[in-house]
Predict the 3D structure of the following.
Amino acid sequence: MALPAPRRPDMPGPQPIEATKVSERPLAGGQAAALLRETSGEIGDQLFKFAMFLCGLAVLAMLGLIVYELVLRSGSSWRAFGFKFFAGRDWDPVNEQFGALPFVYGTLVSSFLALLIAVPLSIGVAVFTTEMCPTLLRGPLSFFVELLAAIPSVVYGLWAIFVLIPLLSNYIEPFLTRTLGWTGLFVGPPYGISMLAAGIILAIMIIPIISSITREVLMVVPQHQREAALALGATRWEMIRVGVLRNARAGIMGGIILGLGRALGETMAVTMVIGNRPEIAKSLFAPGYTMASVLANEFSEATGNVYLSALIEIGLALFLVTIVVNALARLLVWTVTRGQSASARA
Amino acid sequence: MASLRVLVPETDKDSVLHTVPPIALRRRLTDHIMTGVAVLTVILVLVPLFAIFAYLVYRGVGSINWAFLTQTPKPVGEAGGGMANAIVGSAFILALASILGVPVGVGAGIYLAEFGRNRFGDVIRFTADVLNGVPSIVIGIVAYAIVVLSQKHFSALAGGVALAIMMIPTISRTTEEMLLLVPQALREAAYGLGISRWRTTLSITLRTATSGVITGIMLAFARVAGETAPLLFTAFGNQFWNLRVNQPTAALPLQIFTYAISPYDEWHRQAWAGALVLIILIVTAVAAVRFAVRRGTFGAA
């Protein structure tokens, strides 16, 4: 009925299409099926799915490979020392006596120190960005904190050597000795290069992790929790404490553990400031050594099978600890943010 | 009768005020103090950030010159020289890592988003998250065991492998998230046109999510670009030019580390210059990513 509009080459926009017959007669059944199979590419689909599956499998394989290599190559140290490896205090490559206790101690103390400093600061920052700060500031603020995460650890180390260490040895450590020296934690010559320096630099490095995860979980606390608290006459801080922080406990814990995982494995910045001496000292001003730094310092120079194997065993222990810590943290964060779309977590 | 007078409209305002008791001074004070504490934490966190950047620029800008960007390191005691070979070496190692890591990472992300909505997918997802937290130095050991021991010497390839292992989990998880943001209707429209599944995934889904996927890749890239620990005993470092895959290669972070812990002022100066160059490269990448994300349709990084 409706005649096709005439073509108007002088007009802008799409021209009306002239109807043309594609085919006089329908395709035969077999032909159509063949054509369909060809275009839908069953074989291509299978191949594609298989290739993508292999990529996914590669992720699993990487974990398997890490475990395999570490277990295989730490064997001779394990046979030589057994469990005593982690209880021994001697680290004597010349006589092939290896005990990893000072490294385990150094890793634990420096990470714990870092958490002690970083946790209150990061939660404060997260609470400020989600609950208090004007919307205009929110973006730039989280950008700056994220920027802290983008600085490579070797640059942190460089900065620590030339700024933090002099600051510590000239002002902060003498001050701590005067005021808190009686605890026994802050005594000894204030060289700056110390467990304390490692703890501080680690704290700066893990703040972005803890605060971004905390911000994430604070943002998924339902808005009506806040409104309910406010409606009951709570002040803003009471609302945050009762309505927000208490609801986000598990997620914040996850963020803290994730930060711990990062602190345990952090290598370069710590190696540059901790002093690298395998000793166990009570004072935080004394130099120490961590598992990651002994690997960084001695691995490429290790001579002898047992020496190398002992170092790899330290690597294995570090790996296992961080795996457990990270798995725990992920599970906690997952249970909190599950069901939230990816965009809500941004 | 006098009590009834209170309820007449003129005094209504007063009675409402009396039913809501004023907040106790102690509670108001706590509120103000905690707000102050929160502001203080923000300041305490931002101070090191600005201190690092300010000091970096202060020490670095004076040390960057043409020689630094074009020459190889001079022996100890001789002034001058630069880190050109380390800058190029870093780019070389990162290129190797990207060639190895990006296709596998994106592939794993596609698998997780398109085929991995099941138990096995969850296992991979969890593994990737856990791998993200493995200390970089441990990954260095593994790359050493796989590549260096079989090649019998340190090499750029070993460094590339180590960095690729670190890139894959990040890339696969962000790729998955970005692909999941693509509306299902788009896929169905493609299927409805008779387009095969692989073609749909590559030309429709992946294409739509491109900006997000690239964001993920850039973030992973920025993260490994500054890594030193996994390169210590894989790429090892080199005082000279090298662009062969199977030879020890200089890298910018490695060079910064070596110079920073050395006792020479000249080397310290160059370490700062190197750090500034490294930071500029990384911050440019991150800022570009944020810019792209803000403009892109699927901004959820």
Remarks:
- The radius of gyration of chain B is 28 Å.
- Chain B touches chain A through 103 residues (CB under 8 Å).
- Residues 2-61 of chain B form one domain.
- The longest helix of chain B spans residues 25-61.
